[in-house]
Write a structure and sequence with these properties.
With about 180 residues, this protein is α+β, with helices and mostly antiparallel strands. The chain is built from 4 helices and 9 strands; from the N terminus they run ααββααβββββββ. The strands form 2 sheets. A 5-stranded antiparallel sheet has the order 1-2-3-7-6.
Length: about 180
């Protein structure tokens, strides 16, 4: 954006040089259109922020199952998350597990699944929870808060049941909390 009193730099052909702000905005617009806001948000949170932890995608029987783990304090900034998970960020709810599901053939996001997750911590204790279905910024996902505060390896197992797959599809992810 050109500020008052500032001249716009141009190439020899007279076309303005794209400012950094506009370039980043253009990239984000493309991401939002192509991936959907929820998927882009998850990707940005997981890959670009210091609070982000991990992301993994698996294709199982015609479904892309995307699993992400972020620090709960980052998820608290989104109204949908605070409403769905009132204990988010409190003791015992320090990490946010988010799952999105896409049909590989149609590319459609799956909004009517039943999703649950087991998280086994470094102490071998298992937390089992049904994930809350929501629509975040127009994109369906499933999430819940878990206690993953202890340093060490966590084994995350996600079970997905849909009308087309009444027998649960199983996706697994290992994640290590460095402490």
């Amino acid at each position: 954006m050109v500020k008052h009193g500032q001249t716009l730099r141009v190439f020899n052909d007279g076309i303005p040089i794209q400012t950094e702000e506009k370039r980043v905005g253009t990239i984000m617009n493309i991401l939002m259109r192509r991936l959907g806001l929820g998927a882009a948000l998850l990707t940005v949170l997981v890959l670009a922020t210091p609070g982000a932890r991990a992301q993994q995608q698996q294709t199982i029987d015609g479904m892309h199952v995307n699993i992400g783990v972020v620090i709960a304090r980052w998820a608290e900034h989104f109204p949908e998350e605070s409403t769905s998970h009132p204990d988010l960020g409190k003791t015992g709810s320090d990490h946010h597990l988010v799952v999105s599901i896409t049909d590989t053939k149609s590319g459609a996001k799956v909004a009517d699944a039943e999703v649950r997750a087991d998280v086994q911590g470094p102490d071998r204790q298992v937390q089992e929870k049904k994930l809350v279905p929501r629509v975040t910024s127009g994109v369906p996902d499933y999430s819940e808060a878990f206690d993953m505060s202890r340093p060490g390896r966590y084994r995350i197992t996600v079970y997905v049941k849909t009308k087309a797959h009444p027998k649960p599809l199983v996706a697994r992810m290992n994640w290590t909390n460095p402490g």
